[in-house]
Amino acid sequence: MRLRLVLAAGLAALGLLAGPARAGQTFDTVKSRGVLNCGVNVGVAGFSLPDSQGVWRGMDADLCRGLAAAMFGDPGKVRFVPLTAVQRFTALQSGEIDVLIRQTTLTMTRDTTLGLRMVIVNLYDGHGFMVRRDANVTDPKQMEGMTVCLSPGTTNELVTTDWFRSNNLRFTPVLQERMQDNAQALQAGRCDAIGTDATQLAALRSQFTRPGDFVILPQRFSKEPYGPVVRRDDQEWFEVVRWTVSALIQAEELGVTSANAEELRKGSPNPEIRRLLGTDPVLGNALKLDPAWAFNAIRAIGNYGELFERHLGPKTPIGLERGMNRLWTDGGLMYSWPMR
């Protein structure tokens, strides 16, 4: 016993024993401010785009609302901060925003060198190219000498450069910060292709005057898992963001929707549903939130499947199949960590 105590004391002195997580600045600031500052894209259909009344719509915008609902019980307690790819990490590092939910690929170097933390995957994607239909390109290897519009500071810039170099092909990059500017340049003929993630290509094309004039090539060249990003200064805040997204996936796995959440909260005998919806308060207590934190998020924006189908699915102008974003029980990659 004495030997174990001595070893434990030595490990603790070296910082090798995990202790209880300390409350961090972001969690406390968000709670006391009463409003979530959420960084989103400056405007991509299906993800975050203000409508004619200035209301932000899209999957990322709704994830911001879901997080606000989990924190405050009110999805309206969110301030949207539109950011370009170049601005996004600086805005998070400086404290201008509390969380970044903006089509951001989770990568090792971003997670280890920026003072930030990649939280959890909320969408699986892959890099692709969109070209004019009359270019008669069916394979990127036919893109020799093309001008490709890209956004600087993105993984897509690197993926495109690496792919052309590895295939001994030439291309001319045109770097523009706003993806909407790239879309306009493609339509106007100032570039021959756009290189970015396939979901973004579909979102951009849905806004074109003549979307049928453009083709998204089927080949994919990278793994692009999207997810929220927070500062590396607050374990409690990190956990709230991670488990709120996970709760939406768990809700779909359990058949909990925005329509039936209230009924299930009152009468479900399923212990997993009772924990998720706060009838059993164990999960809320673990996050230092109201027991109904996940219930409030699900009721506000729906489960993960509802979220995807509403903003990106086949019945939307973007028209994407779930693919990799199906639940693991349906052959996809979406998988909630056990919530118990």
Structure description:
41% of the residues lie in helices and 15% in strands. Helix 6 links the parallel strand 9 and strand 10. The strands form five sheets. It has a five-stranded mixed beta sheet with strand order 10-9-11-8-12, with helices on both faces. A three-stranded parallel beta sheet has the order 4-1-5. Helix 3 packs across helix 9, helix 3 packs antiparallel against helix 13 and helix 9 crosses helix 13. It contains 14 helices and 14 strands. With 340 residues, the protein is α/β, with parallel strands linked by helices. The protein is globular and about 60 Å long. The two termini are 32 Å apart.
How do the strands line up in the largest sheet?
Answer: 10-9-11-8-12
Helices, by number, come to 14
Shape: globular
N-to-C span: 32 Å
N-to-C series of helices and strands: HHEEEHEHEHEEEEHEHEHEEEHHHHHH
| SS strand fraction | 15-25%
Stretches where pLDDT is under 50 for at least 5 consecutive residues are: 1-23
Mean pLDDT: 91
Oligomer: single chain
Q: Tell me roughly what share of residues is in helical segments.
A: 40-55%
Family: Belongs to the bacterial solute-binding protein 3 family.
Keywords: Signal, Transport
Signal peptide: 1-23
Domain Solute-binding protein family 3/N-terminal: 35-264
